[in-house]
Design a protein that fits this description.
The structure is a single chain. The protein is mostly beta strands and 1368 residues long. It has nine helices and 107 strands. Strands 85, 86, 90, 91, 92, 95, 97, 98, 99, 100, 101, 105, 106 and 107 form a 14-stranded antiparallel beta sheet that branches. Strands 1, 2, 3, 5, 7, 8 and 9 form a seven-stranded antiparallel beta sheet that branches. Strands 87, 88, 89, 96, 102, 103 and 104 form a seven-stranded antiparallel beta sheet that branches. Strand 13 (185-187) and strand 14 (192-200) form a beta hairpin. The radius of gyration is 38 Å and the shape is globular.
Length: 1368
């Protein structure tokens, strides 16, 4: 007997009511069939269920209830996705959906059956893997209810089921009402405008209808439903900029407000540069188009229809105009170009057409030679090439049925003997394919060589196991266990669509994925991918063997939801610095993000494009908010800084959607987002041919280089047209960071050894002082990357070349005399993968360039050995030696071909392919093997993520044993255990701050990996534009006391200190340490007119409390007992424990150190100057069990200053921050003396320097202040942490030369001339003001001081008043 249960209370019925109930559950529902089992088989079934549950890894939201596990055996699980009702287009609806089903005994088939004749269904082939079956389908239907059935046939006939389905195709909606509920926002990533509406007349659980416009070629509109609101997005603009933009739903027109103003015109646009034509080589060469105008709005409408790139601001001029740049693009035929811009209410257009010259290598006489090596075939391919341009790139492509492998190579790879007029191409291919006239093709530029396709009876790799997991940020790890006869050669990721060539996202070769065990025939591997760039409803991989036969595997499509994150989720955004002046200045800033739901259920990201690169910054949860540290480069576009807050998926919130108070304002006098530019250029000789008639003949180019940021460095490469000889010249400015200078490049030619040819500028790369570059390549193009050509202003292209004429001569060409390498075989999975190549060449008449070893794999991967050591054996022979570390896994699953290319003599070049080296009797293949790392191996470090001098988290890349207890060792003398570990990536947290480079290694038992050196980058916070922070009268005490920096505040001259440089440190006797609690007394006595006055300062640790994000106190802890250790006369340690509410203990220790002399120390990556006679507290707090993730700890310190004097007195209290010291300060002043406390806004949290905050608690804890006494309670806020935290405040006594404690200061508390001293109630407040929990501590501190009779004379009045108060 079987029982069928449908989750969501849907019974197996064909009635319309049941169908309606079923369909209305939303876009995702579940169907589960259960079968009763008896008690005898329960354990067996539970075990089988557990195995079955492990197969759900392809599905999301699959859950099993305990009651189900004990009562039923799950047979079939069905997940329906992307299943919504639709509105018809032209009377029809089009649905695409899929069923994913799991049956523990296997699914035989899934059929989609339609009841009526008006619905057409197309069912795609089933996709099966590891017990999971996916059945995608597409169908079109007329308006009305569509009822169909899904028949799932199990291999166990008794569990086969039919599931009825219903979906509705609604007629086109009419008479809708659009009510805008937001302003327009501009998406600077996509160049679109968006606005939210309330729309009445649309149905729930139904995809919004499709919108259309008058001219969809230039103007499109899209309707979506987000966060219970409708959103319309416009791409492009209509032909006019009227206040109304019209959209259509079928034939119904709706008029909506326009985001553009018709009062704006950019008809004053000036064309700075346009190309006369362009060439196209293997990669496309994009001509550049420049124009300039004065923008009136932040985002003026400028669009180029025929380019994937958008016009970009790259610089500005002194008159306020902006210069725009765009790379154009043409794939086929001439380039038809249309630039659109706004001209008041009209859309103006500039239309151009440019011719192109297509470079095609002239290849003929293709011959092949096959050598059978075991099961492989080494093909030597020769052909004749003519009229080669200077080192132009050539494409080599395997054309296959489903996908291609393309490799681009320039000279000298593949070039045998000859010169550019006529040469022999000579290269080798290692494959298992047979040469034939059909099947696969090897394409050289556009010429094809056919190979036989593999045996169709061969099967692709078998996937034995598979899993996925989120690893960190938006990166997922994929694990595969496999078996294949021939070895895996490549893995391709793909998304929607069957055309893998167009939809491939990532390609992985043997150097990219990590073999965890076994080899590429039988083993386990892992690889990683970033899923945030994926789109569509399907995502899969192809696992391919060396025969190019693939096994397709459906990946678990990550849940790219928006997490419900929208503008309403944000409660506040602020920045460490705002109104930032980036004119010739740069630095780091911090964004603070506060959300209504804190912390979020995901890790948010900050996305910025300040210059060219799209940069992602990960947020840190600190002090109950997210912090994003980001770099702001100089001279960028002024105004609102562009940023987006993004979920791990594609959903983001732009700053253009946010209110003004969330904006970051940038101030810049000029814009410079481009590298240096050549403004003038000359050559010598300027006309005609240079006749080389002596041994030191110079041909020269002279450039004038200009850059607003200032030039840093660059280089120029000159190339010969016949022999491809290169001359490299570095460019150095005569003045550091010059904004304009002239530079000359000289090439010296010798009439005795030169050949007649044309020398041309082949490359020019120029960098400014901030790293921006401009790049020109004659012989290759940068594909799909906006790139500024430094020579674009030079319209006379004849200036690029100088033709030379040399005397005729007879030359002896150089020749290869020997070639060898060791070892001949290598384990590419081992730690030792070095190969040393040694070859000798006869010099002949001379060697202009020596050859380089190239290693190639069967998948066209190439590496070369460039660190060549030259030794002259004798007058006729040179020896060349080079050692290369072969990348991990390179060449697998076959051997590695060895080639030698690039020998240049006189008018000719020479190269030797792997096959040619074999013919000459030299070794030509490196045999490969692979041994996976065992559990005893320490692994191999190949790289790391970047890390700042502040420390923090570090990603270590390489190959590591997965089942070993490894640690990362640091050269500073400590080690860390990984917080996350795989065979390819290790994550460690708590890396200590370091200003200097340091090395790491992996330790596994007694074994250590290679050392890897890391150079941390320094986070330099820029200087914000603020009102002057300088204080004092006169400012900063006058020129003898200090100088004013409007941004940093007062910079004091020694011995002056303080925020206004009007105080000096009072040198006091070394205080005695209290042996019962971490409290200390500083005192200083002044004698005048036979009377004494003294200031006594008391600093103590009062309590710790846990508070939530609303500052509500959750728990408060006082310290009943301290253990005291006197380390030396100047340092004492106190330790205690917090007894937590859960019964655990949190150790806390306090170091108090007295500084007799001035000294500079370092804490949390920051240098701190300690003044003489100052006291530093270093407080360590161990692990604490926080009640919630929103909680934080607050350490409470008490500071009290008291003057024992019967004279009139005034007291004053200041609490503020100092920019120059990145700290807060508390200053308790009485008369002309002060207790000064510096509260560093940095802490070591889990060994990582982070920013913390300090606050004054006087109002909540009831501090006491009167003319003779000033008291404060300071709260140091400590964010949630895992292991420990260290904070480091310090205190000192100051003598104020210009006291603020006078009757004239409105913040001062002054005694009337007729009274002095404290009332009992006021004195009592000093003790009890902090709260009942702190009474015992404060009182005990004072009593201890009193009992010890420390400075009894000075404390007499104070202690007696306390005693009297306590008695009352």
């Amino acid at each position: 007997m079987s029982t069928t249960t449908i989750i969501n209370s849907y019974s197996n019925s064909d009635s319309d009511s049941d169908l309606d109930s079923f369909s209305n559950k939303g876009s995702r529902f579940f169907i589960t069939q259960f079968k009763s089992i008896n008690n005898k088989r329960r354990n067996e079934k539970k075990k089988k269920i557990k195995e079955f549950k492990n197969k759900k890894k392809l599905l999301e939201n699959l859950s099993f209830h305990p009651s189900t596990i004990y009562e039923y055996y799950v047979y079939i699980f069905v997940l329906q996705t992307n299943f919504k009702n639709q509105y018809a287009e032209s009377g029809e609806c089009y649905f695409y959906t899929s069923i994913v089903a799991i049956d523990s005994e296997g699914i035989e088939n899934i059929d989609w059956v339609i009841q009526d004749n008006t619905t057409t269904i197309y069912q795609y082939p089933l996709e099966k893997f590891n017990g999971t079956t996916i059945s995608p389908s597409y169908f079109s239907a007329d308006i009305g209810d569509i009822i169909f059935y899904i028949n799932i046939t199990s291999k166990n006939p008794s569990s086969s089921q039919t599931f009825p389905q219903k979906i509705i195709c609604y007629d086109t909606p009419k008479n809708l009402t659009f009510i805008p509920i937001s302003n327009y926002s501009f998406d600077f990533f996509k160049s679109t405008y968006s606005i939210y509406f309330n729309i009445t007349g649309l149905k729930d659980n139904t995809d919004p209808p499709r919108l259309s416009t008058f001219n969809t070629y230039v103007f499109n509109a899209y309707l979506s439903f987000e966060f219970n609101k409708y959103k319309i997005t416009f791409r492009g603009v209509p032909d006019d900029f009227s206040p109304i933009w019209s959209i259509f739903i079928e034939s119904d027109q709706y008029d909506l407000p326009s985001p553009k103003k018709s009062s704006i015109s950019y008809d004053n646009m000036t064309i700075l540069y346009e190309p006369s034509g362009f060439k196209k080589i293997f990669s496309f060469d994009y001509p550049q188009y420049w124009f300039t105008f004065k923008p009136i709005e932040r985002y003026p409408y400028i669009n180029v229809m025929e380019s994937p790139f958008k016009p970009k601001v790259v610089s500005s001029n002194s008159d306020g105009s902006f210069n725009y740049f765009i790379n154009l693009k043409s794939i086929f035929g001439d380039l038809d170009f249309e630039l659109q811009y706004q001209n008041y209410s009209k859309l103006s257009k500039i239309q151009k057409s440019y011719n192109y010259t297509y470079y095609h290598l002239d290849i003929s006489n293709i011959t092949t030679n096959e050598i059978v090596l075991n099961n492989n075939r080494l093909f030597n391919i020769n052909c004749i090439g003519k009229n080669q341009l200077n080192r132009n790139e050539i494409g080599y492509t395997w054309e296959m049925f489903l996908w291609d492998i393309t490799s681009v190579a320039g000279f000298p790879f593949g070039y045998g003997s000859g010169n550019n007029n006529e040469f022999i191409m000579d290269f080798s291919v290692l494959t298992t394919l047979n040469l034939s006239d059909q099947g696969y093709k090897l394409v050289i530029d556009r010429d094809r060589i056919n190979f036989n396709s593999p045996n169709t009876n061969l099967s692709g790799p078998t996937i034995l196991d598979y899993s996925e997991e989120d690893y960190f940020f938006n990166v997922r790890r994929v694990y595969l266990k496999y078996s294949t006869q021939f070895g895996i050669s490549r893995i391709l990721l793909k998304n929607d669509g069957v055309n893998y060539k167009k939809n491939g996202i990532y390609q992985y070769y043997s150097t990219d994925f990590n073999i965890l065990s076994g080899d590429l025939k039988n083993g386990e591997l892992e690889f990683f991918y970033q899923y945030n760039i994926m789109s569509g409803s399907y995502f899969g991989i192809l696992v391919t063997d060396i025969n190019s036969i693939s096994t397709e595997l459906s990946l678990s499509y990550p849940a790219l939801n928006n997490f419900g994150f929208n503008v309403e989720s944000i409660s506040n955004i602020s920045f460490l610095f705002n109104d930032v002046n980036l004119t010739n200045s740069y630095g780091y800033n911090i964004m603070y993000l506060e959300t209504n739901d804190s912390p979020l259920s995901f890790d948010p990201y900050l996305q910025i494009i300040p210059q060219w690169d799209n940069i992602t910054i990960n947020g840190e949860w600190i002090n109950s908010r997210y912090e994003f540290k980001f770099f702001m480069p100089p001279n960028i576009v002024p105004g609102d800084f562009e940023y987006a807050i993004r979920t791990p998926s594609l959903h983001y919130i732009l700053n253009t959607e946010l209110p003004d108070e969330y904006q970051l304002n940038v101030i810049c006098d000029r814009i410079d987002l481009m590298g240096p530019i050549v403004t003038t250029m000359n050559k010598n000789p300027s006309l005609g041919t240079a006749v080389i008639d002596n041994e030191n003949y110079n041909i020269t180019w002279t450039f004038t280089i200009s850059d607003y940021n200032g030039f840093d460095n660059g280089y120029v490469v000159v190339i010969g047209s016949i022999d491809n000889i290169l001359y490299n010249a570095s460019i150095v400015s005569p003045i550091e960071y010059s904004t304009e200078f002239t530079y000359q490049v000289n090439i010296t030619l010798n009439s005795n050894i030169c050949i007649s040819q044309t020398y041309s500028i082949a490359e020019m790369v120029l960098y400014d002082r901030y790293g921006l570059n401009s790049t020109f390549f004659m012989n290759k193009a940068i594909d799909y990357a906006p790139n500024i050509n430094p020579l674009f202003l030079i319209k006379d292209k004849s200036l690029f070349s100088i033709e030379t004429e040399c005397p005729a001569g007879v030359f002896i060409q150089p020749e290869l005399k020997s070639f060898d390498f060791e070892p001949k075989s290598i384990d590419v999975g081992s730690l030792d993968r070095d190969v040393t190549f040694t070859y000798e060449i006869s010099i002949g008449s001379g060697i202009k360039e020596y050859p380089i070893v190239y290693l190639t794999s069967t998948t066209f991967q190439k590496i070369k050995c460039t660190d060549v050591i030259t030794t002259q054996i004798n007058s006729t022979i040179n020896e060349y030696k080079c050692t290369l570390t072969i990348p991990y896994g390179f060449g697998l699953p076959q051997d590695i071909m060895v080639n030698l290319y690039g020998l240049i003599g006189f008018g000719s070049y020479f190269g030797y392919s792997s096959s040619t080296l074999r013919t000459m009797g030299y070794p030509f293949l490196i045999e490969t093997s692979f041994t996976a790392m065992d559990s005893q191996s320490p692994g191999l470090i190949t790289g790391t993520s970047s890390i700042s001098t502040e420390g923090g988290s570090l990603l270590v890349y390489g190959k590591f044993p997965t089942n070993s207890d490894i640690s990362v060792e640091f050269s500073q003398g400590y080690s860390l255990k990984p917080s996350k570990k795989s065979g390819s990536i290790i994550k460690v947290d708590g890396v200590k701050s370091s200003n200097d480079p340091f090395s790491i290694s992996i330790k596994n038992g007694n074994s250590k990996s290679n050392l890897y050196t890391i150079t941390p980058y320094k986070i330099k916070y820029f200087r914000p534009v603020l009102t002057s922070k300088c204080r004092g009268t006169p400012i900063c005490g006058g020129p003898t006391h200090g100088t004013c920096d409007d941004l940093l505040g007062c910079i004091c001259n020694s011995p002056w200190v303080g925020v206004d440089c009007n105080s000096k440190v009072i040198v006091v006797p070394q205080p005695e340490f209290n042996n019962s609690s971490p409290s200390i007394v500083l005192n200083e006595t002044t004698t005048s007119d036979n009377s004494e006055s003294s200031i006594v300062a008391l600093v103590s640790v009062v309590a710790i409390r846990e508070i939530d994000y609303n500052n509500k106190v959750l728990h408060m802890y006082s310290f009943d007992k301290w253990d005291y250790i006197s380390n030396n006369s100047k340092l004492s340690t106190y330790s205690s424990n917090i007894i937590n509410k859960n019964g655990s203990t949190t150790p806390i220790s306090v170091n108090i150190e007295y500084f007799e002399d001035e000294r500079t120390i370092e804490f949390a990556g920051q240098e701190i100057n300690m003044k003489p006679s100052s006291i530093k507290y270093t407080i360590y707090i161990d692990q604490y069990p926080f009640s919630t993730r929103l909680s934080q700890l607050q350490l409470i310190l008490s500071a009290t200053a008291f003057v024992n004097s019967d004279s009139d007195s005034c007291s004053n209290k200041e609490f503020d921050s100092t920019t120059s010291q990145s700290s807060d300060f508390i200053k308790l002043s009485i008369l002309n003396k002060s207790l000064y406390g510096r509260l560093i806004k940095r802490a070591l949290v889990d060994s990582v320097p982070i920013t913390i905050s300090n606050e004054l608690l006087d109002k909540s804890l009831g501090s006491i202040s009167d003319p003779h006494t000033s008291q404060s309670f300071i709260g140091i806020n400590i964010p949630i942490y895992n292991k420990n935290v260290i904070i480091d405040p310090d205190f000192s006594l100051l003598l104020n030369s210009n006291p603020s404690t006078t009757n004239e200061n409105e913040n001062s508390i002054c005694s009337p001339k007729s009274s002095s001293g404290l009332s009992k109630a006021q004195l009592a407040g000093i003790i009890v003001g902090c709260s009942v929990a702190a009474i015992a501590i404060t009182f005990a501190t004072i009593v201890t001081i009193y009992k010890k009779k420390v400075n009894a004379k000075q404390m007499k009045a104070f202690s007696s008043k306390l005693k009297t108060m306590s008695e009352n």
